[in-house]
Amino acid sequence: MDFFAKTDKGRKRRMNQDYVFATSKPVGALPNLFLLADGMGGHKAGDFASRFAVEEFRKYISEAPKDIPSVQLIQNAISSVNERLYKLSMEDENYSGMGTTLVSAFIDDNIITVSNIGDSRAYIIHGNTIKQITRDHSYVEEMVRRGFMRRGSQDYLNSRNIITRAVGIEPRVAADFFEVELSDGDYFLMCSDGLSNMADNESIRNIVRERNSVENKVQALIDIANINGGKDNIGIVLVDPYGEEVES
User: Fold this and answer.
1) Angstrom distance (rounded) from CA 225 to CA 238
2) Would the pLDDT of 190 be above 60?
3) For residues 80 and 93, what is the distance between their CA atoms, to the nearest angstrom?
4) pLDDT for position 24
């Protein structure tokens, strides 16, 4: 397995509120772990929320009993992080209104299990194809699913930053879960909307298909997001499940 994770402030934001974690080594009962969060909230609240969610999620998994089924373990970790973030936002006005998206993934044999809350995304890229695994928890995608809005329309573009589910916003939150069977040649990509809103699927796919290191592919994705405006922070985790890990 080869992978690389990185965040970038982008060209317009003063602060980086994206946070990532990636390891091919076991974390508690999980054989590996990949996390991405995109925080929201004034002052430093969004920065705190994303960092807290990722670090405390990882800590919960590492300390939890190893006999809990993986999906239940992940939902338990999310619930714990959510409750603590929500409590902090209620108790400290500096953190009022904070929240964060959260995408998690782990690979066991040739199956990748993904969870998501919010509009950060996970994709599988293989050859000429790119497929979004996750489903955005956003106002515009809800309207598209109900047939009230056309994806890519001006109304869609004007409202795509409104999310309908996030960690830390409500006392309870539930993640969506997805399982995908991997095959040789697949790439797994997690990203915040700082990439998905700044680069179309074809551009993302073409960069990942290039004959280049995983690290260079990630940098190229960041570069294209910034070239196209860099309007938000950019968070990326790219995994080549069948690649050979390179020390960096």
Assistant:
1) 15
2) yes
3) 21
4) 97
Nearest CA among 74, 54, 16 for reference residue 234: 16
Residue 33 and residue 4 in contact, taking contact as beta carbons nearer than 8 Å: no
CATH architecture of the domain with residue range 2-240: 4-Layer Sandwich (3.60)
Confidence of residue 248 (pLDDT cuts 50, 70, 90): very low
**How is the chain split into domains, by residue range?**
2-240
Q: Which of 114, 135, 243, 129 is nearest to 181 (CA)?
A: 114
Q: How far apart are CA 55 and CA 9, in angstroms?
A: 19
CB atoms within 10 A of CB 245: 12
112-158 pLDDT, tens digit each: 999 999 999 999 999 999 999 998 877 676 776 777 677 767 766 66
Alpha helices in 20-133 (DSSP H): 45-63, 70-91
The alpha helices in the chain, defined as continuous H runs, are 45-63, 70-91, 139-145, 154-159, 193-196, 201-209, 214-227
Triad 50, 14, 235: Cα angle to 5°: 40
- CA gap 68, 75 in Å, rounded: 11
Q: Quick count: other Cβ atoms within 10 Å of Cβ 59?
A: 15
Q: What is the pLDDT of residues 27-80, one digit of tens each?
A: 999 999 999 999 987 657 999 999 999 999 999 999 999 999 999 999 999 999
- Distance CA(209)–CA(185), nearest Å, equals 10
Distance in angstroms (rounded) separating the CA atoms of residues 244 and 238:
13
